[in-house]
Specification:
This protein is an alpha+beta fold. Helix content is about 25%, strand content about 10%. The chain is built from 2 helices and 2 strands; from the N terminus they run βααβ. The protein has a two-stranded antiparallel ribbon with strand order 1-2. It is globular. The mean pLDDT is about 90.
């Protein structure tokens, strides 16, 4: 995992990516730029776990490029 600060010209690129999402589409430019102030870009290696089911997180992940696989563990109980 590599963390990259979002600065300079990268801010405009991130705002452009966020605008493509239905979640952020209707926000004003200044609001999107404010969001990027508290954001960082993280590059994950192939196969690296980002989060685990049931874990506590204080983060929101927006996939700008690449893909992620979601795996869910199903527990079966018998009574």
């Amino acid at each position: 995992m590599q963390t990259i600060p979002i600065t300079g010209e990268m801010t405009d690129a991130v705002v452009k990516e966020l605008r493509q999402s239905a979640l952020f589409r209707d926000l004003a430019e200044k609001d999107l730029k404010e969001i990027t102030k508290s954001a960082v870009m993280i590059q994950f290696d192939d196969g690296e776990t980002i989060v685990e089911e049931g874990g506590v997180s204080d983060s929101f992940f927006f996939i700008a490029s690449g893909e992620a696989v979601i795996k869910r563990t199903h527990e079966t109980t018998h009574e």
